[in-house]
């Protein structure tokens, strides 16, 4: 999700492009004011001119029904609408305003995501469920009732949308919370009660390593259990930090679980007393950075390049073996050994690199390998 002011259409479109180039396949933008709604078509126009076809999701709270009805160009430019049942309205207005958003989705044939957040669960529903809980012979604790309210809000809102004419296949549900344990409980129950697509996310996960570890722990368990269709890692960016960090983490989770191949895998050892610390770690970082930077170009020119396996190993213990198992790998000699680094391509020793330029020489070999294996000539040769 972008964190720019949506009214600034160029800044928002630029960040959408950055997220897309980092691997995001869906991008959500805040639509909270008439001015933001007016900017959405311009954002879409910028992206189309740049050849960025990533779908835009409108994030609506409190006034989404009015913005979608009053700004049809915004409704048309968005590919999906996010609705929070807890922020649609209160009392009699809730059902009318929820229905108005569904009517707009039906008019433009747009899917919706019904996104319930633990911090903004429907207060009237929660109060009613708390009252009912008091009548139980063995009342649940208040936290358990809150989790049940989160699931109920999502499931019942989906039923309401279907009753209004929405195709169940066009409804995505999410129930985001801040606790890993709570998220597991809620999504397992959500998966048990419905057949809608589910969007995963640990909301308010935190900053830096805390947010990365918590999000990875929660979503990896659910994805391994077959729960979840889309995901977002919600990280609080550090000052000056790029927004693409949350996309990178999301991609790494899917890649590590073997669910998606989104970029070449760079395998590298952790290093030990046998490795030449600076030379090895600098080369490992250089190769990883190179692959990430080149993917913007490779993704469009070399179909299948995301399955590439690269190895950067630090010494002779596991280095030659791991390098042979990769598509292309290099094994540094380690500390106090002959400063010669063999390169293996498709399991066969291809060359031995020496000297201070061996890193650049390996990157050159890597680029050549990608062109040869995944380029149009390679595809034609396989067909022949």
TrEMBL record:
Keywords: 4Fe-4S, Iron, Iron-sulfur, Isoprene biosynthesis, Metal-binding, Oxidoreductase. SUPFAM superfamilies: Nitrite and sulphite reductase 4Fe-4S domain-like (SSF56014). Residues 1-249 form the IspG TIM-barrel domain. One of its GO terms (biological process) is isopentenyl diphosphate biosynthetic process, methylerythritol 4-phosphate pathway. Gene3D superfamilies: Dihydropteroate synthase-like, Sulfite Reductase Hemoprotein, domain 1. One of its GO terms (molecular function) is metal ion binding. Its cofactor is [4Fe-4S] cluster. Residues 266-367 form the IspG C-terminal domain. This is (E)-4-hydroxy-3-methylbut-2-enyl-diphosphate synthase. It comes from Candidatus Symbiobacter mobilis CR. The gene is ispG.
């Amino acid at each position: 999700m972008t964190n720019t002011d949506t009214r600034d259409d160029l800044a928002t479109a630029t960040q959408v492009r950055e997220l897309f180039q980092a691997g995001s396949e869906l991008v959500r933008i805040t639509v909270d004011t008439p001015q933001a709604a007016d900017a959405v078509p311009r954002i879409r126009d910028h992206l189309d001119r740049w050849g960025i076809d990533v779908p835009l999701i409108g994030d609506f709270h409190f006034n989404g029904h009015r913005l979608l009805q009053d700004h049809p160009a915004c409704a048309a430019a968005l590919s999906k609408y996010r609705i929070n049942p807890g922020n649609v309205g209160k009392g009699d207005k809730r059902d009318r305003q929820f229905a108005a958003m569904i009517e707009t989705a039906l008019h433009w044939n747009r899917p919706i995501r019904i996104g319930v957040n633990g911090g903004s669960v429907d207060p009237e529903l929660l109060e009613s469920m708390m009252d009912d809980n008091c009548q139980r012979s063995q009342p649940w604790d208040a936290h358990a009732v809150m989790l049940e309210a989160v699931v109920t809000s999502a499931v019942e809102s989906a039923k309401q949308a279907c009753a209004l004419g929405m195709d169940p296949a066009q409804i995505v549900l999410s129930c985001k919370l801040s606790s890993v344990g709570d998220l597991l409980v809620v999504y397992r129950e959500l998966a048990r009660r419905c057949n809608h697509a589910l969007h995963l996310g640990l909301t308010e996960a935190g900053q830096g390593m805390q947010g990365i570890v918590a999000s990875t722990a929660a979503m990896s368990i659910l994805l391994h259990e077959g729960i979840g269709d889309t995901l977002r890692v919600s990280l609080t960016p550090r000052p000056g930090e790029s927004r693409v960090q949350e996309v990178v983490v999301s991609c790494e989770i899917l890649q590590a679980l073997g669910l998606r191949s989104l970029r070449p895998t760079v395998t590298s050892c952790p290093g030990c007393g046998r490795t030449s610390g600076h030379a090895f770690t600098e080369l490992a970082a250089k190769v990883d950075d190179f692959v990430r930077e080149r993917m913007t170009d490779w993704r469009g020119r070399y179909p299948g390049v995301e399955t590439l396996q690269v190895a950067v190993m630090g010494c002779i213990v596991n280095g030659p073996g791991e390098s042979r198992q990769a598509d292309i790998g290099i094994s540094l000699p380690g500390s106090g050994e002959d400063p010669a680094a063999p390169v293996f391509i498709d399991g066969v020793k291809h060359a031995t690199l020496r000297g201070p330029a061996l890193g650049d020489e390996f990157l050159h070999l890597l680029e050549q390998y990608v062109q040869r294996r995944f380029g149009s000539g390679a595809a034609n040769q396989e067909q022949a």
